[in-house]
Amino acid sequence: KIRTAIEPEIEMRTVYRRSPTSSYEKLSLDGSDEECSSSSMEISTPPPSPLWLGARNRGVEQWELGKVLFIVSFFWLSALSNWAVLAYTHDFAGWEPMPDIVFKFVPEIQIAHKMGDYFVTSSLICLVLLIVFHKHRLIVFRRMVFIIATLYFMRTVTLLGTYLPPSYSDNARRCREQHANFSLERLGVRMFEQAIRFGMQDETGKLCGDMLFSGHTLVMMVCMLTVTHYIPKKWRLLRFFPYCFTYVGMACMIVSRRHYTIDVVIAHWLTTFVFTSYHAYIESDQFSDRRQSVFHSYAYFRLIGWLEANIVPGRLENVFESPSEAVLALLGVKPKESAPREKLGVEKIV
Fold this sequence. Notes:
InterPro entries: Sphingomyelin_synth-like, Sphingomyelin_synth-like_dom. The chain contains 13 helices and five strands. By secondary structure, the chain is mainly alpha-helical. It has a domain at about 65-305. The strands form two sheets. It has a three-stranded antiparallel sheet, with no helix packed on it. Helix 4 (about 110-135) runs parallel beside helix 8.
């Protein structure tokens, strides 16, 4: 809903559109478009946060400090909770692998273990490149961190609720020795080992028991869905790479027996649901549409609404931009204008 401070006879022929970068365009029905300042209109959007930092310039999104700190804290709490649960469940998970439909027909392929790690790394590279070159990179980055944190929190709940035994054919050789008695000191040491390695483990002597929800599949799916959703249309053929990395990587997770089939399936379903529902909620055309949505009755989506309160509803404009332009804009440096064509020895066309 937009109200303009102009004459009634002109008001019916003019609408205003605001982009995610807080620039306004006046769209006239006669085809003439021009930019205008926010002082000439009143928009029924929530008031800006008091933690709003600086001004947007040349497509560089503002960071809201309080929300960023919340998202980062949520991410690290989710990661720490995953490592804590793994450190705990290792001593209580069974040692005999469970039957699996894929294991019944496909033998364990150990080389697929490393291949799966390579595909995870390749998917992350695709995600990083997208965020670096996307015009609204900070918005995309903030959304992805929050979604990943949400999924890792859900993974913590599943790991803590049910202890599945490792799926290797030689669990006794691959996994560390189990201890019958719980030790808080041992738990802290294991968590510290996980933290300094950011969740990565050695091939032998590893902590086992983090089944039921594949973390590798979670990461690859988020990368694939993000690239698919935010890549510009003219670059859409590049979506083939994250698709390939993700689904081949998921197959590697199973045939290497790093995860059961159900682990990968659950991770695929939950990641797709969280990513899709998040964007279905925030990409409503109006803030009022969000409040009328069935999602709004859940506290989680009201939290998302708070995080997205100062971002214009609707889908982001997917455009690539050199990261150097964003850096210059943050520093307040104006890019050098190119010399006139006549000074470059090119004849001016009239």
